[in-house]
């Protein structure tokens, strides 16, 4: 199935006959000499076809994400890369994403930034849509409502995808949420929720999660709440705003009646910062939030 998608993808470009599958693998017409459905095995068996050339080393640098390193290693050793992904082929054509669009990350074999059929730009990884990532504190997460709405940061670094996109991509239902945490002792945790959706802005991007599993506690146990930022929260009766309480918690789905709730992953970053997930001590250092819809 993957292969069919890729051939279709290649067919939609004008470059089909010029395409090759990697330094050692050439595409003749639209078929790779090697079957790249099982890249590592294939590469070791018959990867060493075809000469290297200057234009090819040039292209080794084109890979924008992940697999770039793998290919470079292969080139330095003068042997074929041990791993090739469909991504590399698709990525070769900078404009390919303008021709081939998938309806969701779930159906996209491409990792990285891409436009979906609905026009939204998302960041896909292993068929998940990544919507929050932090690991070094380089991006300020103390932001306004409008910034949390449209997103901020760079998808190759720390970022927040934007509540409006998360809403549009999850409103159809049948979405899972996965949260991955690494604390300052480098212990890893994960939590998944079998259902996840975010309401519209009119409903203050209220969170709906259920069905917790994982070895991180249920940090969202009280969090089916509206989103709150430093400049926007609506609560009746009025309560202190958890986004600014104790300094710098960032925008989140706070629970005002339960000490602000069991988590806030957009707080001030750092070992003595304000990033919080119930039961994760020391504090989370690296965080990823992602969803996948059926
Ligand atoms: C790849 O890019 C790096 C930095 O941009 C450069 O130093 C290197 O020579 C490039 N390699 C190839 C094979 O073009
Ligand atoms: C949680 O699960 C992950 C993956 O299964 C594992 O690597 C990690 O060590 C576990 N963490 C704890 C605290 O048990």
UniProtKB/TrEMBL annotation:
<dbReference type="InterPro" id="IPR002181">
    <property type="entry name" value="Fibrinogen_a/b/g_C_dom"/>
</dbReference>
<keyword id="KW-0732">Signal</keyword>
<dbReference type="InterPro" id="IPR036056">
    <property type="entry name" value="Fibrinogen-like_C"/>
</dbReference>
<dbReference type="Pfam" id="PF00147">
    <property type="entry name" value="Fibrinogen_C"/>
</dbReference>
<feature type="domain" description="Fibrinogen C-terminal">
    <location>
        <begin position="96"/>
        <end position="294"/>
    </location>
</feature>
<dbReference type="InterPro" id="IPR050373">
    <property type="entry name" value="Fibrinogen_C-term_domain"/>
</dbReference>
<feature type="signal peptide">
    <location>
        <begin position="1"/>
        <end position="21"/>
    </location>
</feature>
<protein>
    <recommendedName>
        <fullName>Fibrinogen C-terminal domain-containing protein</fullName>
    </recommendedName>
</protein>
<dbReference type="InterPro" id="IPR014716">
    <property type="entry name" value="Fibrinogen_a/b/g_C_1"/>
</dbReference>
<feature type="compositionally biased region" description="Basic and acidic residues">
    <location>
        <begin position="61"/>
        <end position="75"/>
    </location>
</feature>
<feature type="region of interest" description="Disordered">
    <location>
        <begin position="39"/>
        <end position="79"/>
    </location>
</feature>
